[in-house]
Amino acid sequence: MPAANNTFSVKIPAELTYTPDSLSSGNTMISNEQYNAATRTLTFTTDAIKKDATVAIQIPLTGAQITTAATPDTTVTYNDENFNEDHYTADGTDQAITVTSNEVPVLTGEKETTLQPNALFDPMSTMTAEDKEDGNLTGAIKVLENPVDTSQSGTYEVKYEVTDSDGNLATFTRMVIVTEAPRIIGAESKTITEGTLFDSREGITAIDKEDGDLTASIQVDGDVDEGVPGQYPITYTVTDSDGNQTKTSIIITVKAKPTEGTLTADAYQVGGSDAYIHGTTTGDVSYVRLSVNGQFVSQRLVDEDGTYKYYTRPAILSVNDEAIMVRV
């Protein structure tokens, strides 16, 4: 017999959630749908069902609580299509529904990272991923974008994602800030004359992009003895609030004061019997230096009485040679 006036009643357990007006069927008409949220009871009717026929009705349910035994309770009342007075009730055979978690993984890490110039950056540092079903997914994290260049100051975005076994996707963005080291200005190697005063801080300044003027924070290492000719290294160091440090080294050369005095050479005959140039000096002259045709030959020590003599035969061979003697 065909079953008519089919009224279904479905008691939905608390572990499941039903969204009203979401019933559907591909082979019967559904009408008179009602859902009582207080009693969690869904009722609806269908067209007549022929003998031995099967109808499929989709009742969308979502899990509200994790369980292994969420069992709906279904009953149907109906009558023989030919005998409206006779009503029948049938209990459904409901299967237990298992509700599992399907949560998105939790992807965490340092949201903002500050790096010094030229520092090493590991994009996976501080990053972790946990999933309620899959557990630790840190090894499955993918770095989608990593434009960080620590040789260039600036702000960079590093992007990550991780997917669990259910296909749930989690994303994360980290801001990486590469700071800029301070600059030392005015530190240059120079030469000064013996006896000239030298101030290692004069004209030296330091500026920083974030901290501004750091001149007062410059550390100076090294001393210059202005009275002693020689080369003296000076190192300037400055550190900003981010810990970035800049060092600049220079060389200060102290040159001897010019010799004060006179140099006189006696007459010299090329090819003569006397192969020496003779002469006298006055003042602060310790050496005489000979150059021939623009080439330095050597220098000789002046005697205590201010006289000198210079053997020239290997150097001066012609009257056309240009010989120059200077005091040192």
Walk me through this protein's architecture.
The model has no long low-confidence stretch (mean pLDDT 88). The protein has no helices and 31 strands. It has strands at 3-11, 16-18, 24-25, 30-36, 41-46, 57-58, 61-63, 67-70, 73-80, 83-91, 97-99, 106-108, 112-115, 128-131, 135-136, 142-145, 154-163, 169-178, 183-185, 190-193, 205-208, 212-213, 219-221, 230-239, 245-255, 261-265, 276-283, 287-292, 295-301, 307-311, 323-327. The protein folds into 4 domains: 6-99, no CATH class; 106-178, Immunoglobulin-like (Sandwich), CATH 2.60.40.10; 183-255, Immunoglobulin-like; 261-327. The strands form 10 sheets. A 5-stranded antiparallel β-sheet has the order 4-5-1-9-10, with no helix packed on it. The protein has a 4-stranded mixed β-sheet with strand order 13-18-17-16, with no helix packed on it. The chain has a 4-stranded mixed β-sheet with strand order 20-25-24-23, with no helix packed on it. The radius of gyration is 50 Å and the shape is rod-shaped.
